[in-house]
Every structure is written in C-alpha cells, then in structure tokens.
Design brief:
Blueprint: E1 10-11, H1 15-20, E2 29-33, H2 38-43, H3 45-54, E3 59-65, E4 79-83, H4 90-98, E5 102-108, H5 113-121, E6 123-130, E7 142-144, H6 152-157, E8 186-190, H7 202-215, E9 220-225, H8 229-241, E10 248-252, H9 257-262, E11 266-270, H10 273-280, E12 285-288, E13 305-307, H11 317-328
Parallel strand pairs: 2-3, 2-5, 3-4, 5-6, 6-7, 8-9, 8-11, 9-10, 11-12, 12-13
Antiparallel strand pairs: 1-7
Length: 331
C-alpha cells in the first residue's frame, strides 16, 4: 500500500516501508478508537462505512468509553471494546487497555490521554492519529493535523487520506432505521441541550413556534422533550403557552426518537446530539449556536442551516425562522 502525505503530515521514518509491506488483502483486523459522546459517535459512522467498503475482509473493533455508550455504531463493527472510566481502579483500566490484542491498522480519532495510552499499549502494524504537541511521535506511524473549522465527520474521514481511501460524498451514515408514518408532515423542535446555559431561551422557542404554526398550518409542530427533569419542564412550558394551537404537539423523548426524526421535514435544535441524529438520518436541520463555535457542526450538504451571531450573542427569532423558512419553502 502507498502512503499519501502532505507537507504538514508527521511521518515516522519507517512508516513508508511498513505500509509498503502491506496489501489490501493483508488488512484483517482494524481498531478504531473513539471515546466520545452521542453526537460524535454518530458523526464517525461514515468513517466506519468507508473502512468496511475498503477492507471487506477485515474485522473492525471500536473502542468506546464506559460513560458514553448511547449512539455506539455497533451495527457497523464486529466488536465493541469498552474502556472503564477513571472511577475504576488503575489495574482494571490497564487490563482493558491490554486486552485488545494485535491489529493490522489502528486509527485514533479521539486525541485524549486515555486514547494515547490505548494506542501506545495496543499492538498494530500501522497506527494513524492526530498531531498533539510531541506525543504523536512516540505512538503513531503517521499523524495529521486536526482541522478545527471543518465539519467533524470530514475531520475523521481525513485520516483515511493517508491510505489513499476514497469515501462517498455526501457522507453515507447508513442509519438502520425507518421513518415513522404520521398523517401530516411535521417539524420537530428540540428546545434543550446538555446544559441550561447552552439552550436557546424557551421564550424564543415559544415565539418561533407560534409564528411557524400560523404560517405553516399544514404541518404539525412537535416539541420534543429531553430526558432530564429540567428539560421536561422546558418542553411543558413551551407546549402550555401554545396550547391554543391544535397543530402544536408535545412528545416525550423515547426509543422512537430516531424514527421520528427520520420522518421529519425539518428539525430545529441547539448544539446537541439530537441535531447530529438529524444529520445522520438525512433530515434537514437548523442548528442554533451561541455557546460554542458552529463550524465543526455545520455540514455543507443536506440542506442543513446554522444560525449564529458574529458577536456571539443569542440569535434572534427572526434569524432562526428565516433559516427554517429556507428549508420548508423548498418542500
């Protein structure tokens, strides 16, 4: 196999010869390390899809971390390895790091202390990771710069360039779900996030939904509640204020979320994993940003919109509605 590098790619002096000794048929075991929450586990699906297409004979193992299991793409891999959290004993964590055995290829998509240690202790013919200070020089055969302003899915896929692998565009997430059939088309509004200070104010969601419920009476407008008590309170407040609108409906989060979002005409959400789910299910979305930078979560495909102010302030109802109008006016 040929090694494909650019000027700023870090390459171990033996990397080219090591990879040259391997052929596609030699790739029988691949380890991918991704210790991350729900959204990033969804974002990495095209990476695994490309590996499966490129190396159909290989067994793929995905290393995850214990406290982030929701969204694990176990349908795309042969084995899921779970690294214990730091609350477990050092012996338990060390044992978990040494139980993976030998692999032909290793990809570290995480860039964290646990992933560095796991990459170091795991035997592999060829290791690929991200550049991090000087740590990568002691672990990987090739390390690339991590793009900070590109959509996360693309950032992960860039590691495959060093092997000359080609991936589908738009990225193929291969989500194994079927859309829910409802009597009317619908828009979903997910008003909360991982923390209250990351959530667009409920009062603004109320104003937005009131306007869209009037302008688009042919749609149901679904307020989807999160799981935490405070998220339920927010959803209840919004639906209560809009109870006079028969096309505004509140639904609780549950096992059918994926199918519900797959069937939606659009999703409006904060910077949260639910929006990543919309991206993975090919549902057009409006992402509202003010707490975090939007660029890593802004896919330039699939009709997805992001709304943010250049000064970092909370986006207005008018700007969010304009983004949603762009989607619904194309229906």
């Amino acid at each position: 196999m040929k090694l494909w590098t650019e000027k700023r790619t870090w390459v171990n002096r033996r990397a080219k010869s090591k990879l040259a000794r391997l052929s596609t048929d030699d790739i029988d075991s691949i380890l991918v390390i991704k210790h991350a929450a729900y959204g990033d586990l969804l974002c990495m699906r095209p990476f695994l899809v490309t590996l499966r297409q490129s190396f159909p004979k290989a067994k793929i193992t995905l290393s995850t971390i214990e406290h982030y299991q929701r969204g694990t793409p176990d349908d795309l891999v042969d084995h899921v390895h779970i690294l214990p959290t730091k609350h477990k004993s050092l012996m338990a964590r060390f044992h978990a790091m040494r139980e993976l055995g030998h692999h032909t290829l290793l990809f570290d998509l995480t860039e964290s202390t646990p992933s560095f240690l796991l990459s170091l202790f795991t035997s592999a013919e060829f290791k690929v990771g991200y550049q991090h200070r000087s740590i990568h020089k002691f672990i990987y055969d090739v390390a690339i710069l991590r793009a900070e302003y590109r959509f996360e899915t693309e950032t992960f896929l860039e590691q495959l360039h060093v092997l000359g692998l080609q991936y589908d565009w738009p990225p193929d997430y291969k989500m194994p779900i079927t859309a829910i059939n409802r009597s009317k088309p619908y828009v979903i509004y997910f008003p909360t996030a991982s923390a209250k200070n990351k959530s667009w104010p409920a009062e603004l969601f109320i104003q937005l939904i009131e306007q869209t419920a009037r302008q688009y009476p042919q749609y149901d407008h679904i307020v989807l509640s999160g799981l935490a008590d405070w998220e339920i309170e927010v959803a209840n407040k919004i639906s209560s204020e809009l109870k006079t609108y028969q096309n505004v409906i509140k639904l609780a989060a549950g096992k059918d979320d994926t199918s519900l979002i797959k069937g939606a005409n659009a999703l409006v959400a904060n910077d949260t994993g639910i929006r990543h789910l919309a991206i993975a299910t090919e549902t057009p979305s409006v992402g509202i940003f003010f707490y975090a930078t939007p660029f890593g979560y802004w896919p330039r495909f699939g009709g997805h919109q992001v709304v943010f102010e250049r000064d970092g302030s909370v986006p207005s109802v008018n700007n969010v509605k304009q983004a949603l109008d762009l989607i619904l006016d194309l229906e």
